[in-house]
Amino acid sequence: MPDFKIAPSILSADFARLGEEVDNVIAAGADVVHFDVMDNHYVPNLTIGPLVCDALRKHGVTADIDVHLMVKPVDRIIPDFAAAGASYITFHPEASEHIDRTLQLIHNEGCKAGLVFNPATPLDYLTYVMDKVDMILLMSVNPGFGGQSFIPATLDKLTEARRLIDESGLDIRLEVDGGVKVDNIREIAEAGADMFVAGSAVFGAASESDPNTYDSVIAAFREELAKATV
Fold first, then answer.
1. 64 catalytic per annotation
2. Residue 36 falls in the annotated catalytic set
3. Is the separation of the CB atoms in 9 and 179 below 8 Å?
4. What would the pLDDT profile of 56-90 be if each residue is shown by its tens digit?
5. How confident is the model at residue 213 (pLDDT cuts 50, 70, 90)?
6. Which of 31, 39, 134, 177 is flagged as catalytic?
7. Of 31, 36, 39, 194, which is the active-site residue?
8. Do residues 118 and 125 lie in contact, with contact meaning Cβ atoms separated by under 8 Å?
9. What predicted TM-score, i.e. pTM, was given to this entire model?
10. Which one, out of 81, 114, 207, 209, has a CA that is 20 to 30 A from the CA of 123?
11. Is residue 129 over pLDDT 70?
12. d(Cα 61, Cα 44) in Å, to the nearest integer?
């Protein structure tokens, strides 16, 4: 059984109490904290920067922080997120003039590096940099907004990416982001993913009567993953 990781996206969290929100999802069984960094340039939205990452580390968050950069250009901001405590830094190949150099920059800053592929972006960019990639992130929605529906064609793309990873023999995470729910996470895992970003599906599970409880949805994810045939 693969080492599945659940990575709630704080894009859907209550930012007025972000430290508490992150503490609660980690306590409920989540593995990784996912950052959606948007610049109102590469994508039509504006979200968070390195200061938020640094604040969570100072708050006491020790889990891996997975920073997904939806910014263009990317190189200027990478050292800032590394200094702020990022574990993984992933970026879109379209947002870098020199992909190999950007991957090297992330590694030189002490972080794991990854490439992010939009729904219509081919995996060809991996051809000459597989040995420099620690993570491949497939977007199963178009980037820029939370709460979108999963694009089914991503399943075939996941299968292709999993084949490339297996053939390489390298230790590379295969992450999926967008529209991941309890009712589709098993199918996504069976297509090859081993890390799952979920924003609204996790943080939206809190009720007004018990706003701090995420145990049930994380447990439901785990139950579905345990059933996956991989």
1. no
2. yes
3. no
4. 999 999 999 999 999 999 999 999 999 999 999 99
5. confident
6. 177
7. 36
8. no
9. 0.95
10. 81
11. yes
12. 29
Q: What is the spatial distance between Cα 158 and Cα 30, in angstroms, rounded to a whole number? A: 22
At 169, the amino acid letter reads G
Q: Which helix (H) or strand (E) segment is 33 a member of?
A: strand 32-38
Kindly report the backbone phi and psi dihedral angles of residue 91, in degrees, each rounded to the nearest multiple of 5, phi listed first.
Answer: -145, 165
Query: Which residues make Cβ contacts (< 8 Å) with residue 221, sequence separation at least 6?
Result: 6, 182, 185, 196, 198
Tokens of 175: 């992450």
Dihedral, CA of residue 36, residue 42, residue 48 and residue 54, to nearest 10: 80
| 167 three-state secondary structure | helix
The third-level CATH classification (topology) of the domain covering 5-226 is TIM Barrel (3.20.20)
The DSSP call for residue 150 is: P
Question: What does the block give as tokens for 118?
Answer: 């939009």
Question: At residue 84, what is the residue type?
Answer: A
3-state helix, strand and coil shares in percent for the chain, rounded to the nearest 5: 40, 20, 40
The residues spanned by each domain of the chain are 5-226
